[in-house]
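All the exercises in this workshop are built on plain-text protein records. The record below serves as our worked example for the rest of this section.
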Amino acid sequence: MGVEETDPLAQLSLPPGFRFYPTDEELLVQYLCRKVAGQQFSLQIIGEIDLYKFDPWVLPNKALFGEKEWYFFSPRDRKYPNGSRPNRVAGSGYWKATGTDKIITSEGRKAGIKKALVFYVGKAPKGTKTNWIMHEYRLLESSRKNGSSRLDDWVLCRIYKKNSGAQKPISSVSTKEHSSNGSSSSSSSHLDDVWTVDGDG
């Protein structure tokens, strides 16, 4: 008989029916802020990868978890040594920004920025558009290190393939910043930790 393959989901020890549908605020506050602050996660569900070294269609196999959406922490390098533009070349093509950046807030404070990108095969500006989409979440500029080839030590990326003729996968509805369930206090403490680390808070 052949060698038995191990199921990566079984290795995570997730409860039956587990789903991972974080809001934009949760991705920034509960995951990216904690990652940048060097805090550990009790359940490692978002992998670390330099996703700009790969084509998007190979990324699902490199993810720790996901069926239609895949999440990664990734470094983001500068396009030019002294510039502020990110290098978007990846694998056999490049990621091109689309739409306007969305500011994500938590408890009335700006937590970070969400940018939508589309993958094109080939060289800019004559690449061929694909259905691969990335939402890149990053902290505000105050968290960046000057004089480094790295633009950001970590960004958090959500990757998915848009079905042609269909809408983007349904994600959970964002909750109001001042919910009455008390969950916002933990969000605030994670933001405060990062803002204190950055010297902003």
